């Protein structure tokens, strides 16, 4: 399996120049734009909403936009983000009262759908919805902030989810988010991830292309 996606988290970009930053990271070889939505309620931080997603589309960004909802309630944001140009919408099961309905709402809005698991959130939420998932996102930090360290127990959790995806026979992306760096991406891929969010590792370096190339080099080993 060599089909790896690199998804820079724009949480660590320069928000005063967001369009240019997203353009630059895509020119540098990124595949997907990871868009972190925080509400100062489900997580202790406040970021950006559908207006900013639409602004990126209006600016000319064509790449898939992966909207990671860290908001509660979830449902009222889904149609707004779909209309704003989201490609993928993921949410945390604890934040939705009716998980199946939220997933259906995302699909009905024409987007790919995914569930996000915090480091201590159990995987049983997968039990009855595998057929509705395009993406499973494991958090390898507690959500809310960029620049945190990868929590090692996530590797064992990735292996469990990889087994469940393979057993399902379905084409489901296994995304990892938090503390992904050049020096741990190979180990994370070996545990089963095939979509890698990286914020500070990319945006805190001057040469985005060099970081992304180094990540791809690690993935090719
Ligand atoms: C954290 C966000 C992440 C964050 C990752 O709540 O979901 O997407 O931006 O940042 P790094 O890669 O710096 O850990
Ligand atoms: Zn995220």
UniProtKB/TrEMBL annotation:
Annotated metabolic or biological route of this protein: Carbohydrate degradation
Q: What is its EC number?
A: 5.1.3.1
Q: Which cofactor does it need?
A: Fe(2+); Mn(2+); Zn(2+); Co(2+)
Indicate the residues that form the catalytic site: 36, 177
Instruction: Please write the reaction equations for the catalytic activity of this protein.
Output: D-ribulose 5-phosphate = D-xylulose 5-phosphate
At which positions is a divalent metal cation bound?
34, 36, 68, 177
Keyword Nucleotide-binding on entry: no
Q: Does the keyword Metal-binding apply?
A: yes
Query: Which controlled-vocabulary keywords does the entry list?
Result: Carbohydrate metabolism, Isomerase, Metal-binding
Query: What is the enzyme's main class?
Result: isomerase
InterPro entries assigned to the protein according to its UniProt record, in alphabetical order: Aldolase_TIM (IPR013785), Ribul_P_3_epim (IPR026019), Ribul_P_3_epim-like (IPR000056), RibuloseP-bd_barrel (IPR011060)
Q: What note does UniProt attach to the cofactor annotation?
A: Binds 1 divalent metal cation per subunit.
Q: GO molecular function terms here? A: D-ribulose-phosphate 3-epimerase activity
Annotated residues for binding of substrate: 9, 68, 144-147, 177-179, 199-200
Q: Tell me the function of this protein.
A: Catalyzes the reversible epimerization of D-ribulose 5-phosphate to D-xylulose 5-phosphate.
What family does this belong to?
Belongs to the ribulose-phosphate 3-epimerase family.
* Name by which UniProt lists this protein: Ribulose-phosphate 3-epimerase
Q: Which organism is it from?
A: Pseudidiomarina fusca
Biological classification of the source: Bacteria, Pseudomonadati, Pseudomonadota, Gammaproteobacteria, Alteromonadales
